[in-house]
């Protein structure tokens, strides 16, 4: 099941989470260049001084948005039991469905990856998450090789890197070229023999 995008709750609820959501939606609409702390605070119905109680710096708010965005994809790596092919198919299917149902998430993730090139704290966070994702893919592929589902000479590290690069690239076209992304996912599934 696809996780649905939360709405900003300006009054009541968890104010910290509401600030993260407001910043998330602002980044999705206007990128990091359009992110203004004062406007995020206003969306939640507080002043910027109160926002700084929750996030002392803009970078800390951005880090919280990055954690939230990446957490939104965590469910795609926890597929039900099955063969390695089943697990990889489920992971790619869930990612593709998430791109279709929540394109704003992938806009924000792209913005985060771009920001990571300029901000060391975000860079470390993104690299750590990518390393975890890579390890999960390698484990699935190695198990598949051991079970004879893929050839014994499959370069699992390279294939895992190719999958990640593919997903990151596909996320760029999720909004502007959804049909091409769908075609690319279909081709990837055929290449990996997980249909």
Q: Could you spell the SSE succession in H and E letters?
A: HHHHHHHHH
Helix content: 55-70%
Number of helices: 9
**What is the β-strand count?**
0
- The CATH homologous superfamily of the largest domain is named Tetracycline Repressor, domain 2
Q: How many strands, which pairing sense, and closed or not: the largest β-sheet?
A: none
Strand coverage percent: under 5%
Would you tell me the structural class of the helices and strands? mainly alpha
CATH top level assignment of the largest domain = Mainly Alpha
Question: What's the N-to-C terminus distance?
Answer: 20 Å
* CATH-level-2 architecture of the largest domain: Orthogonal Bundle
Shape designation: elongated
Low-pLDDT runs of 5+ residues are 1-5, 7-12
Please give the radius of gyration in angstroms: 18 Å
* Average pLDDT for all residues: 86
CATH topology of the largest domain: Tetracycline Repressor, domain 2
Number of domains: 2
């Amino acid at each position: 099941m696809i996780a649905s995008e939360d709405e900003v709750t300006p009054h009541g609820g968890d104010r910290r989470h509401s600030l993260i959501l407001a910043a998330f939606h602002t980044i999705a609409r206007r990128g990091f260049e359009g992110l203004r702390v004062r406007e995020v605070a206003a969306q939640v119905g507080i002043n910027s001084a109160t926002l700084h109680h929750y996030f002392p710096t803009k970078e800390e708010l951005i880090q919280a948005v990055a954690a939230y965005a990446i957490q939104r994809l965590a469910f795609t790596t926890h597929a039900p039991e099955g063969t390695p092919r089943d697990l990889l198919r489920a992971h790619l299917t869930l990612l593709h469905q998430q791109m279709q149902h929540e394109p704003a998430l992938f806009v924000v993730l792209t913005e985060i990856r771009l920001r990571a090139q300029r901000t060391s704290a975000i860079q470390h966070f993104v690299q750590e998450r990518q390393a975890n994702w890579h390890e999960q893919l390698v484990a699935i592929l190695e198990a598949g090789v051991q079970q004879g589902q893929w050839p014994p000479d499959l370069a699992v590290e390279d294939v895992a890197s190719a999958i990640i690069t593919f997903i990151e690239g596909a996320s760029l076209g999720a909004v502007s070229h959804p049909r091409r992304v769908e075609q690319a996912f279909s081709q990837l599934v055929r290449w990996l023999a997980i249909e």
